[in-house]
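Design a sequence for this backbone.
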């Protein structure tokens, strides 16, 4: 469904490894802890949204399924493919995210299919890939409705590249071109570029540098009223607590 479980521990790796083996734990364990996941109470759980934001924390037993479902809404997972032997080259392209190349290979195969099985598989896969492209375009629209143009632009850039020559790529390109001509949207995109750089520094625990990029969004008057400034202000407050 898109929900990933990750454990966090500040104990020695040997001790954690022994615990994992004894209890048959299958999920990933992060060793040495993380600044955002410190607690004086055990057990403790955090729910992180697809955007990387902590949206809930508390005792694991208090985390309810409806809350998880709420934050999984709109998640579009990249599909995986398993095709017949004669279509393995297309399968490789698909699972690498090279949808345009894969569809070309599948369409070429359909001109002279090896069997009814491969013909059916090729047709179904082409439909599945195109449906995925359409769903990603819809996701970009949903982000845009929330004025989260940075997130939307990332989706569209990915479509433009991986669906090159196909309808999804063309629509993505047209949308991005139109947004760059809109002054209000362009401001959101410009701010998102600073936000992305700030996030990279946050992940590297370079908080002073992160604050510098966030101030380039929160300080200038031109970003007043933008959604990206609202996001940057929240991040800046969190970063300043670490300085």
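Sequence:
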């Amino acid at each position: 469904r898109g929900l990933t479980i990750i454990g966090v521990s500040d104990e020695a790796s040997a001790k954690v490894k022994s615990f994992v083996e004894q209890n048959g734990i299958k999920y990933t364990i992060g060793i040495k802890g993380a600044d955002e996941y410190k607690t004086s109470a055990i057990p403790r759980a955090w729910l992180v949204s697809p955007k990387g934001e902590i949206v809930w924390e508390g005792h694991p037993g208090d985390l309810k399924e409806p809350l998880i479902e709420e934050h999984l809404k709109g998640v579009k997972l990249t599909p995986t493919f398993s095709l017949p032997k004669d279509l393995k080259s297309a399968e490789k392209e698909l699972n690498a995210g090279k949808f345009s190349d894969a569809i070309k290979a599948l369409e070429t195969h359909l001109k002279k299919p090896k069997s009814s099985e491969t013909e059916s598989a090729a047709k179904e896969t082409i439909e599945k890939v195109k449906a995925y492209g359409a769903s990603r375009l819809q996701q970009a629209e949903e982000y845009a409705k929330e004025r989260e143009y940075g997130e939307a632009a990332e989706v569209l850039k990915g479509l433009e590249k991986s669906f090159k020559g196909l309808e999804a790529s063309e629509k993505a390109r047209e949308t991005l071109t139109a947004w760059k001509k809109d002054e209000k949207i362009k401001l959101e995109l410009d701010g998102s570029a600073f936000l992305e750089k700030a996030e990279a520094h946050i992940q590297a625990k370079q908080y002073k540098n992160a604050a510098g990029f966030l101030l380039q969004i929160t300080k200038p008057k031109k970003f007043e009223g933008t959604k990206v400034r609202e996001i940057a202000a929240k991040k800046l407050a969190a970063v300043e607590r670490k300085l």
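The beta strands are 6-9, 28-31, 45-48, 54-58.
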